[in-house]
Amino acid sequence: MSLAKISQLAGTGVHVPGDDIDTDRIIPARFMKCVTFDGLGEFAFYDERFDAEGKPKEHPMNDPQFAGASILLSGRNFGCGSSREHAPQALYRHGFRAIIAESFAEIFFGNSITLGIPCLVMDGRDIASLAALVAEAPHSEININVADNQVSIADVTFPAAIPGHAREALVNGRWDAIADLLEGLNAVRSTASALPYMQA
Amino acid sequence: MAKTLFDKVWAAHTVRELPNGMTQLLIGTHLIHEVTSPQAFGMLRDLGLKVLYPNRTFATVDHIVPTDEREEPFSDSLADAMIKELRKNCADNGIKFFDLSSGQQGIVHIVGPEQGITQPGTTIACGDSHTSTHGAFGAIAFGIGTSQVRDVLATQTIALHKPKVRRINVDGKLSPGVYAKDVILHIIRMLGVNGGLGYAYEYGGTTFDAFTQEERMTVCNMSIEGGARVGYVNPDQTTFDYLRGRPYAPSGGEFDAAVARWKAFASDADCVYGDTVNFKASDVAPTVTWGINPGQAVFIDEKIPAPADLPEKDRSTAEEAYAHMKLRPGAPIKGTRIDVAFLGSCTNGRISDLQEVARHIKGKKVKSGVKAIVVPGSQGVAAVAESMGLAEIFREAGFEWRGAGCSMCLAMNPDKLIGDQLCASSSNRNFKGRQGSPTGRTVLMSPLMVAAAALTGEISDARETFGIR
User: Fold this and answer.
1) B417 and B372 fall within a common domain
2) Which of residues 158-187 of B touch A (CB under 8 A)?
3) Chain B within 8 Å of A186 (Cβ-Cβ)?
4) Which of B459, B444, B466 is nearest to B359 (CA)?
C-alpha cells in the first residue's frame, strides 16, 4: 500500500471561529446511521449551517466567497468529545485537506492524521491574523509546509507546529499505520503469548 | 525504578517502536458496537485481511437500539441495517455478540465490566470515547476511531504516542447527597475540558479508595470530557471482589493467581507522575452544567457565571452557551424549568445508580408535564432492577421504564428532545444538539439530581427535595 507523501499543500481557507468545537457539531449523531462513510461530506457542520427546515443559516461555510476552501481554521480544543471518525471523514469528504487550530483534541487529531489530514497548531493571534487575510482576499492561496512547520499566505509566513511523530508519518507517506502494524505481526504474537489473559 | 500502573501496562503490551517513533501497542481486549465498526469491517474486506484474534473482540448493540419497540425489523430502516450488519460481521468472523436476544445486551461500557471481560492490567480499546470507563479496573482503555478499529481487528494493535500521567487525588468523605458524578464534574470544571490533553489521569486518594467499583466507573467514564483520553484507578480488593464470579473472569484457583498478577500492576508507592492535582471531597457539592460543554458547571446553589466572572479565554464560549441554553448570566441555575428527565447512559446507568434513586423516590410522583425516562445500562441491570422491585418503584412514580441502550445520551435511537426542550440528564455530554434536537438543551447532573428535577419540574437541590442531611 503506497500512500502520498504529504509535505506541502495549498488551497484557499475558511475560518470557522470558536473554541471547543466538538465532534457532535462537526457531524451530528443522526447522520452516523450508516454503514459506510460515503456521503457524509454534505452533513459537515450541518446544524450550524442549516435550520430545522434545511434552509442555510449564516455560516462561513455557506458563504460563496469561501466555496471550495480546503483549509479549515478554527480555535482551541478543536474536535473534542466523541471519538467518531465520521467527523474527520465528513470534513475530508466536504473538501478539507488540512486543519489549522490553536489546539486539537487527541482522538480527533489521531483520526485525522490516519486519513492524511494534517492538523497544525498555531498561536491564536496568528490564526486571527491569517483569518483576517483570508477574509480580505478569500481567493488567496494558503501554503502549508508540513515538513518545515510553516503556513504562509501572500508574503506573510506564520510558524505552525505538528508533533514530530505525525509530521514524520505525513511526510514519509506512512500516515495510515496499517502497513507498519502488519509488518509487526510476528512480534504481536510473541507479545500476546506472554499475557495470560490473551490465552483465554 | 518505581513505575505507575500506566507504565507497567504500557510496557507489558508494547510490541515495538514504529519508524515514526510511535509505539505499536497490543490491545488485549477489543469491544465493538454497531456505529463505529461496520466501516472497519468494510476496510478489512477491501484489504483482504482477516480478524487476527476473533476471541479477543466482543460486540454488543447499544447506540441505535430503540428502548421501547424492540421488535425487529426496527421501524428505522437505517438502524435496522446497522444491527444486521453487526450481526453478520460477528457471525462471519467468529466474534462473540451480546445480541438483543441474549439477555446480556447493553451499553458496551456496562456490558464489558458486568461480564468480567474488563480486567486489571489489560489494554482495552473501543470505537467510542467513553472507553475510559474501563480504567476503573486498572486497565488502560482507549477510545479509538474507525480506522483504528480496523487496525485492532487486523493486527490486535494500534499505533500510539505515549501520554504523560497526571495523578488526581481526592481525599476525604463526600457529604450526603454528593456523588461520584459530582466529583468528576467538579474535576472537569476545575481543570478544564482540554486540561487533560496529552495526559492519562490516574485517580486516587481516600475518596476513591472508599468508592465502589461502579462509582469509580462513573468518574473514569468522563475522563475524556476533561480532555484525557485515558483515566484509571489502581486495582484493589474492591475491584477483585467485583470481578469474582463474573462469566469471563478467571474462575477457581485461576482467579487467585490472576489477583496476584493484577495487584502487581498497581502504581508503586514512590512512582513519579507528570504532575499531581489535589482535591478535597468536602469541597465538592452537587454540580450541574449551565453551558454547552461539561466544564461549564456550577454547584447547585451558585449562580450562572457572568462573562466578567470568567477568564477572558472562556468568554466567547460562554456567550455561545447563554444563547443556546437561553439562560441568563448571573441568574441562579436552581429553579430552571425542565421538560425532560433522562436517567441512564454509560456514566450513570448502572444498578447502584438506579438503587440510589429508587430508594429516594419511592412513593413520590414525577411533576405533571415532565417526561421522565429510565434507561437501564444493560439487560443485566434491567433484570436485577426488575427483580429488586426498582422498576415498579420507577413506574409508580411516573417514570417510563425502558429497555437497555444509549438512548437519549446521544439520541441515535428514537429517544430525542423536541425543539428547545431542556433535559436534566445523568449522561456525559451537554454539547449543542447532543440529545437529538439541534436546539435541545442539556443540563448534566447526578442521577439523584435528575430525580429531584423530575419530581419538582425544575433544577433542584436533591438534598432539599429528599431531605438529605
Assistant:
1) yes
2) 158-159, 161, 163
3) no
4) B466
- Name the minimum distance, in Å, from the CA of B205 to any CA of chain A: 27
CATH for B189: 3.40.1060.10
Mean pLDDT of B76-81: 96
The CATH architecture that domain A8-175 belongs to is Alpha-Beta Barrel (3.20)
In this structure, the answer to whether residues B338 and B442 fall within a common structural domain is yes
Distance (Å, rounded) from C-alpha B376 to C-alpha B404? Answer: 5
Query: Over A151-177, what HEC string results?
Result: EEECCEEEECECCHHHHHHHHCCCCCC
Say which amino acid occupies B407: S
Taking a C-beta distance cutoff of 8 angstroms, is the pair B179, B204 a contact?
A: no
> For chain B, what is the domain count?
3
A105, A174, A198 member nearest B20 (Cβ): A174
Of the three residues B283, B318, B345, the one that is the final residue of a domain is B283
Confidence of residue B308 (pLDDT cuts 50, 70, 90): very high
Kindly state whether residue B259 falls inside one of the protein's structural domains.
no
Q: What sign has the CA pseudo-torsion B291, B297, B303, B309?
A: negative
At B32, give phi and psi (nearest 5°).
Answer: -130, 155
Residue B245 lies in a domain: no
Q: Do A165 and B161 touch (CB under 8 A)?
A: yes
CA distance B364 to B373: 15
In Å, what is the CA distance from B130 to each residue of A31, B58, B158, B324?
20, 16, 18, 25
Nearest by CB: A195 against B28, B143, B412 = B28
- Average per-residue pLDDT in chain B? 98
Q: What is the pLDDT of residue B128?
A: 97
Per residue in A115-159, pLDDT (tens digit) is 999 999 999 999 999 999 999 999 999 999 999 999 999 999 999
Secondary element (H or E) of residue A125: helix A124-136
In angstroms, the separation between the Cα of residue B129 and the nearest Cα of chain A is 5
What confidence tier does A23 reach under pLDDT thresholds 50, 70, 90? very high
Q: Which of A94, A130, A86, A148 is nearest to A112 (CA)?
A: A86
Is B39 at the interface with chain A, CB within 8 A? yes
Asked if A172's CB is within 8 angstroms of B317's CB, the reply is no
Q: Report the alpha-carbon distance of residue B249 to residue B114 in Å, rounded.
A: 10
ipTM of the complex: 0.97
H-only helix segments in A50-118: 86-94, 106-114
CA distance A146 to A164: 10
Measured distance CA(B220)–CA(B348) in Å, rounded: 12
Domain ranges of chain A: 8-175
The count of CB pairs under 8 A between chains A and B is 216
| Domain membership of residue B32 as a residue range | 5-160
Any B CB within 8 A of A18 CB? yes
Residue B20's pLDDT band (boundaries 50, 70, 90)? confident
CA pair distance A66, A60, nearest whole angstrom: 7
Which pTM value belongs to this model? Answer: 0.98
